[in-house]
């Protein structure tokens, strides 16, 4: 059974009709997850994160990095459209111990072609259910404050801003915000 508890069919121009499924990533998915990461990061962060820093971050996360993460048991789930990995979500225990939430979504990304179709909501819901099953109640996710798409996405899902911080990217400091959900 897929992690999202259902199978579906997609009817969208430009995509063939096929099965939609969310499941745990397998080592064989590493190259496809790296490709999603590459395309999604270049789309989401171009103009926000300085170019050289963005290139370094993308290149660090190649297929070998994802293969190692999957093999060591990181919670990474993929969204399949037919046989294609269209997106992924990476999640686990909350890393910010000052925040009273058990779970955290570290990353949720889709290939640009699949954005805006509701697939991100399905990945989010699947990760949230899996975290709850692991008794990691409550959820937090961080986003760059200037990433309007991410901020809008989390607000539309009912996230409430609960913290802020900054992150350094080379010589540029960027604000980030934490969104949270209770059980």
Automatic annotation (TrEMBL):
Residues 20-183 form the N-acetyltransferase domain. Keywords: Acyltransferase, Transferase. PROSITE patterns: GNAT. The keyword Mitochondrion does not apply. GO terms for molecular function: acyltransferase activity, transferring groups other than amino-acyl groups. Coiled coil: none annotated. It comes from the Bacteria. The keyword ATP-binding does not apply. This is GNAT family N-acetyltransferase. It comes from Xanthobacter tagetidis.
